[in-house]
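Need fresh eyes. Consider my entry:
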Amino acid sequence: MLRTIEQIEKNAFFYKIFLGNKGVPSFKIHLREMMNKKIVEQINENNVSLDELRKDTFVQFLSSAIVGVIEWWFTHTTPCSAEEITDQTWSLLELNQLILQSQS
């Protein structure tokens, strides 16, 4: 994820235009689809066992969360580095995992 966000940071001007309030809605969809693909690759590489519905829901949740964080990051004039926003995002995802485990 860090490499992707660093790449986005390098092209910040472009992403700010496309992700902003007057941006291109199809670009957000494309970015989310790109994230979906990367997440599915990670699931498959790590042999994570999920039924199809759970896998689809998990992938959609993660990609929407990540794209939402990236969008927030740009609308707030990148208040931190790519590494910091990646660390924050992973921390939130880990916290979410802990909450889900405690409810099981």
About this structure: The domain at 2-103 is CATH 1.10.357.10 (Tetracycline Repressor; domain 2). Residues 52-75 form the longest helix (24 residues). Helices lie at 2-10, 12-19, 25-45, 52-75, 82-103. The radius of gyration is 14 Å.
